[in-house]
Design the sequence.
């Protein structure tokens, strides 16, 4: 089935337009260097409002070295927007609506992180077109759990080809204001081909005390299964003790109280629907905190990106789900 | 990109506070309430100014002796760029001696509150963001290359001596090794 994905700007006279959000996201996982990159371009606020912003984030975490890259903010009206593309000065992400191929470009000489990547879907997408409640608003999303990626990146002065790397892509859109009472937990975990990949998600309140039903999709070869609700159990333990890279700097300075956020040191996911059974253990190794400021009303959200390693074991039908790889856990409050 | 001459520190400070007042009068009123009847000094690179709110409004004037003012902050453009890039954080800049803040505790707290009011307004104020972007484009060294960032800097910019560790160990004040 072909799905035409595109940005979802609000129609004229939409009273909820000031709460408009739309973003394109790409994670690249280089299994060879054990580096994890994220490229995110997002729109915040009504498209014709001069206060509305476009934000581009390009970060890579290199094992044993740390974070490289940066975040840029410009006016939404200054961004180059297409049917399914968002371009800023240093960061751009474009999705071909027909083939679903994703092209990413990062040109950040001073951040010492440059990237040219072309990613082709390698499995069916996940589509959640209905409006999932999120605080006083809603969110919808579309995700491709695994893409094959080619291209090059330069990080810390070293240029690498991305052959053999894995990628994950999603597109989120909806209406909410940062700072409302909501949060979410999300993860993409990818073992090298032909191993499995997983996409985990659930919405929560800001304190992560009241959680919506979780959803976990597993893809491996022809296998594409989604488990929901009580068949998926999440258990967090420990505390990540690593210092946090926080962006943008001005908002990090404003929120000194969030300089040492309480983030998990381990996530165990157990899936059991009475027939299929497997488990995943994920251990973050670092964290970045992206402070999302609402450009229309006073409010802040805190998006924590935690790259790390995972191992998994179990079975789905006749398929063994054993492997290990890299991924990103996202914790938003 | 602007073709105007680079702004001086005096012009930057005046433009930031005047813009805050035009876009968010309530925020400026709050700032005035916090710092009224006080004069703060700001040093950036080789330029020093005093900042106060007088009966006629904002006063930003060249200053020579920061010791005569209620409180002062001194830094350089490279540190401000690093702070805006998130390469360092405020506590790290202070502990590493890149941001020097002097004055009585209450005056320092008031200065930081005034800065927080400005930072809090900036996400909803494109003109303030444009001033920050202009500062970065005018003051960023063209050959600057960011190093990998692990997070906040170590607590002190100088290492502990062996005698200090010996004393802390004798008093049982050293942290437990990981895993114990």
Sequence:
């Amino acid at each position: 089935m072909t799905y035409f994905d595109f940005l979802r700007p609000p129609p004229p006279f939409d009273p909820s337009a000031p709460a408009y959000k739309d973003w394109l996201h790409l994670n690249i996982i280089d299994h060879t260097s054990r580096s994890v990159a994220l490229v995110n371009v997002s729109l915040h606020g009504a498209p014709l409002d001069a206060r509305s912003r476009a934000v581009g984030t390009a970060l890579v975490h290199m094992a044993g070295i740390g974070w490289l890259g940066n975040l840029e903010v410009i006016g939404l009206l200054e961004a180059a927007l297409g049917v399914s593309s968002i371009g800023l000065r240093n960061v751009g992400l474009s999705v071909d609506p027909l083939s679903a191929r994703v092209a990413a470009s990062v040109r950040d000489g001073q951040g010492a992180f440059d990237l040219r990547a072309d990613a082709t879907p390698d499995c069916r997408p996940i589509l959640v077109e209905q409006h999932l409640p999120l605080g006083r608003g809603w969110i919808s999303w579309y995700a491709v759990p695994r893409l094959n990626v080619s291209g090059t990146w330069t990080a810390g002065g070293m240029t690498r080809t991305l052959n053999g790397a894995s990628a994950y892509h999603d597109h989120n859109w909806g209406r909410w204001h940062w700072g409302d009472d909501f949060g979410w937990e999300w993860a993409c975990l990818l073992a090298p081909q032909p191993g499995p990949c997983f996409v985990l998600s659930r919405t929560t309140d800001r304190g992560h005390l009241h959680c919506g039903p979780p959803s976990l999709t597993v893809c491996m070869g022809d296998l594409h299964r989604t488990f929901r609700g009580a068949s998926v159990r999440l258990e967090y333990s420990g505390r990540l003790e690593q210092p946090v890279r926080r962006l943008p700097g001005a908002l990090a300075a404003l929120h000194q109280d969030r300089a040492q956020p309480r983030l998990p040191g381990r996530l165990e996911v157990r899936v059991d629907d009475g027939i299929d059974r497997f488990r995943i253990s994920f251990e973050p190794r670092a964290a970045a905190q992206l402070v999302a400021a609402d450009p229309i009303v006073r409010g802040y959200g805190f998006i924590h990106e935690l790259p790390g390693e995972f191992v998994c074991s179990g079975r789905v039908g006749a398929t063994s789900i054993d492997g290990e790889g890299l991924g990103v856990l996202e914790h938003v409050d | 990109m602007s073709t105007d001459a680079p702004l001086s520190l005096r012009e930057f400070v005046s433009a930031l506070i005047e813009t805050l007042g035009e876009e968010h009068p309530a925020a400026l009123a709050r700032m005035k309430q916090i710092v009224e009847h006080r004069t703060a000094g700001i040093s950036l690179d080789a330029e020093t100014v005093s900042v106060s709110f007088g009966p006629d409004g904002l006063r930003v004037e060249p200053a020579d002796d920061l010791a005569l003012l209620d409180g002062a902050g001194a830094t350089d453009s490279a540190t401000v760029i690093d702070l805006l890039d998130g390469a360092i954080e405020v506590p790290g800049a202070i502990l590493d001696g890149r941001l020097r803040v002097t004055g009585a505790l209450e005056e320092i707290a008031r200065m930081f509150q005034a800065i927080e009011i400005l930072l809090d307004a900036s996400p909803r104020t494109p003109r303030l963001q444009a001033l920050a972007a202009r500062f970065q484009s005018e003051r960023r060294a063209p050959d600057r290359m960011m190093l990998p960032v692990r997070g906040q800097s170590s607590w002190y910019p100088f290492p502990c001596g062996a005698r200090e560790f010996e004393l802390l160990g004798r008093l049982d004040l050293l942290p437990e090794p990981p895993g114990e």
